[in-house]
């Protein structure tokens, strides 16, 4: 039996299925792995028994991924699984910021008792005249799973679309409409934009990336949409730009003590991924990642360890070593296996950044003294006897 601790409501209806051989536990101390969403794990006391964490969703700034890597904990996310949901709400925010829809609905609600409301609405409506997205210039920062979809949707709405992403993946570059014009600098992207939308992760080079300098380059009265993370924008600069009219609207998914006091805002409850479809997609992907890791040692979509697969564990024994990406690891591991006279059927070694993963199948079970010797290799963080 394997034990899973869930943190956060993974789906609205509470449906989360791991299937046979798995049980949910209340206490993290009793779990092998964690399935979670947005809870902040910085400062969380993670028990040593936890081998893996799957974040149902994209952003992992709520998880100390490098610290966990050094403890031999593999962190997964579910790339792309909620991207369509975010794309749709971002487009909705752009339309809300352009058409006086909310204000017009408010007028109707406030005049509900007027017997001549139908006639008076005809007079009131000029206050809610907006403008169309078609023909406007939009800048998209970050052309990953969400940004590439937003950019393509904006193209299909007839907008002039500019994208900025110095680290774009080949996969996302392929997925991008040819009508999206790629720009080499953040400043060139911002210049003259009527809409600016943010789709980058929160990390050292993106925190505060939208500040006065960037906002001043936008077209006067531009709309800023932030469904990425609250940290990406300098909130004081946004507040000033709204007061000055440099920004006409700020649509954000993050209700911070500062954003809630700003004028001309549409603020949602971190609901970008809030659809049944996105929740189900994220949960499905995260659960299958966890199961393949716990049962076979395979890693897909980890944010702190390399991808690695040897298929189903069919040999007598499968061992995985999580270790630092330093020289001579394979040499040290194979020397210990040779001392045990172990016959290795297959072995893979992959690395990503500071961390690496070595997994092998052997014809027979290894002695416990061999496992202990593997654990004693200085740069080894964890050894898992998968089978
Ligand atoms: N509001 C919500 O509910 C949701 C918010 N998000 C947020 O949106 C972010 C993006 O999500 P995805 O598109 O799924 O992630 P992704 O990883 O597919 O795409 C992120 C893109 O940002 C680019 N990037 C990284 N650093 C950059 C920089 N300095 N300048 C420009 N581009 C840079 C990367 O190259 C990548 O293409 C997530 O990290 C998360 O913070 C994601 C999903 C739901
Ligand atoms: O996927 C992301 O990065 C999100 O921000 C979604 O967060 P959530 O899972 O809805 O709490």
TrEMBL record:
Q: Which CDD domains match?
A: ACT_3PGDH, PGDH_like_3
Q: In which pathway does it act?
A: Amino-acid biosynthesis; L-serine biosynthesis; L-serine from 3-phospho-D-glycerate: step 1/3
The reply to whether tRNA-binding figures as a keyword in the UniProt entry is no
Write down the Pfam families for this protein, in alphabetical order: 2-Hacid_dh (PF00389), 2-Hacid_dh_C (PF02826)
Name the EC number(s).
Answer: 1.1.1.399, 1.1.1.95
Q: Which GO terms describe its molecular function?
A: NAD binding; phosphoglycerate dehydrogenase activity
UniProt name for this protein: D-3-phosphoglycerate dehydrogenase
Which residue ranges does the record assign to the ACT domain? 318-387
Family membership: Belongs to the D-isomer specific 2-hydroxyacid dehydrogenase family.
Q: Which InterPro entries match?
A: ACT-like_dom_sf (IPR045865), ACT_dom (IPR002912), D-isomer_2_OHA_DH_cat_dom (IPR006139), D-isomer_DH_CS1 (IPR029752), D-isomer_DH_NAD-bd (IPR006140), NAD(P)-bd_dom_sf (IPR036291)
Q: Which UniProt keywords apply?
A: NAD, Oxidoreductase
Annotated function: Catalyzes the reversible oxidation of 3-phospho-D-glycerate to 3-phosphonooxypyruvate, the first step of the phosphorylated L-serine biosynthesis pathway. Also catalyzes the reversible oxidation of 2-hydroxyglutarate to 2-oxoglutarate.
Reaction catalysis annotation: (2R)-3-phosphoglycerate + NAD(+) = 3-phosphooxypyruvate + NADH + H(+); (R)-2-hydroxyglutarate + NAD(+) = 2-oxoglutarate + NADH + H(+)
């Amino acid at each position: 039996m394997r034990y899973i601790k869930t943190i956060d409501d993974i789906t609205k209806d509470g449906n989360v299925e791991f299937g046979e051989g798995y049980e949910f536990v209340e206490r993290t101390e009793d779990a092998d792995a964690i399935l979670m969403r947005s809870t902040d794990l910085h400062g969380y006391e993670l028990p040593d028994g936890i081998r893996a964490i799957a974040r149902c969703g994209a952003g992992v700034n709520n998880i100390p991924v490098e610290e966990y890597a050094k403890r031999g904990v593999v962190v997964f996310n579910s790339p792309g699984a909620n991207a369509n949901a975010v794309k749709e709400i971002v487009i909705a925010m752009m339309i809300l910021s352009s058409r006086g829809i909310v204000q017009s609905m408010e007028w109707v609600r406030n005049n509900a008792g007027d017997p001549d409301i139908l006639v008076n609405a005809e007079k009131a409506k000029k206050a809610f005249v907006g403008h169309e997205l078609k023909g406007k210039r939009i800048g998209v920062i970050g052309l990953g799973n969400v940004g590439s979809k937003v950019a393509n949707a904006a193209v299909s709405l007839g907008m002039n679309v500019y994208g900025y992403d110095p680290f774009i993946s080949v996969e996302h570059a392929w997925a991008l409409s040819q009508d999206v014009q790629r720009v080499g600098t953040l400043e060139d992207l911002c210049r003259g934009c009527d809409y600016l939308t943010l789709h980058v992760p929160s990390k050292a080079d993106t925190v505060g990336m939208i500040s006065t300098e960037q906002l001043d380059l936008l077209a006067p009265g531009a709309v800023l949409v932030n469904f990425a993370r609250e940290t990406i924008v300098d909130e004081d600069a946004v507040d000033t730009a709204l007061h000055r009219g440099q920004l006409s609207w700020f649509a954000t998914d993050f209700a911070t003590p500062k954003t809630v006091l700003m004028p001309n805002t549409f603020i949602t409850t971190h609901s970008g991924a809030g659809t049944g479809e996105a929740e189900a997609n994220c949960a499905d992907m995260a659960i299958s990642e966890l199961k393949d890791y716990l049962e076979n040692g395979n890693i897909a979509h980890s944010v702190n360890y390399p991808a690695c697969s040897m298929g189903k564990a069919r040999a007598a024994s499968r061992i995985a070593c999580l270790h630092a990406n330093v020289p001579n690891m394979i040499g040290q591991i194979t020397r210990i296996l040779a001392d045990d006279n172990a016959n290795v059927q297959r072995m893979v070694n992959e690395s990503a950044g500071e961390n690496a993963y070595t997994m092998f199948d052997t014809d027979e079970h290894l002695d416990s003294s061999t496992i202990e010797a593997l654990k004693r290799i200085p740069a080894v963080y964890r050894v898992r006897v998968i089978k």
